[in-house]
Amino acid sequence: MRSIAFRCPQGHDSADADYCDVCGTPNPAYSTIHRPQTSTGWFASQQCPVCSSERLGEDRYCTECGYDFDMGQPLPHGLEPAPQPASGPGAGQQAPAPTAAASPTLAVVTELDATRFGEQGAPPPPADVPERLYIIDRSPLVIGRDGPGLDIPIQGDPYVSRHHAEIVWTGSGWGVRDLGSTNSTRVNGDVLQGSEVRLLAPEDVIEVGFFSQLKVRSL
């Protein structure tokens, strides 16, 4: 039987007591108890030794280059994906897993489009939603409104559907498709139609909900 150390805010049961071993979210209770206090607070500012970007809070990965702060090592190129069971929409229709030779390693960074906060009909913007980096290493990866069973949870945007879109491997590249969301999925401003799979490239922007977006990056 798998030993469960804590349940993370995303609803995952984790065997690791410090970070969720499913999504990487830190255990607030463990962090408060076990991490040493510094002269400026609980967490000292930390720079990425690879690209010199500042670490965002307790995020495990550098949002610029993917450096793993917890393990103290850069993200290896050409990660071999570990096939995992799919859940939610698209289950049973899992696309072929990519290989290191077949695909570049990509990542997406979730962020907010602050230019839309003042638009008519805009929902109240969330108070504090930091950028998060997710490695694209298996297919499908489900994007949706914060909750259990998601690979990429989106917080603070009520216009995002529970299972909004998914990133899939097509055999020749990474793509994204809408999962019948209420408010559609857009790539660089273009609305995805039906079950269309739009191929992704570095610097593409996937827009979901009202002001939430995922920026594609190469690693």
Produce a short descriptive summary.
The protein is mainly beta and about 220 residues long. Helices cover about 5% and strands about 25% of the residues.
Structure, described:
- The chain has 219 residues and is mainly beta.
- It has a domain at 106-218: Tumour Suppressor Smad4, CATH 2.60.200.
- It has one helix spanning 28-34; strands at 6-7, 13-14, 106-112, 132-136, 141-145, 152-154, 165-169, 174-178, 185-187, 190-191, 198-199, 205-208, 212-218.
- The strands form three sheets. The chain has a six-stranded antiparallel β-sheet with strand order 4-3-13-12-9-10, with no helix packed on it.
- The longest helix is centred in the first third of the chain and has 7 residues, at 28-34.
- The chain is globular.
- The model is unreliable at 31-43, 77-88 and 94-101 (pLDDT under 50).
Q: How much helix, percentage-wise, in residues? A: under 10%
In the CATH hierarchy, what is the architecture of the domain at 106-218 at level 2? Sandwich
CATH class assignment of the domain at 106-218: Mainly Beta
CATH topology group of the domain at 106-218: Tumour Suppressor Smad4
Largest sheet: 6 strands, antiparallel
H/E series: EEHEEEEEEEEEEE
Dominant shape: globular
Number of helical regions: 1
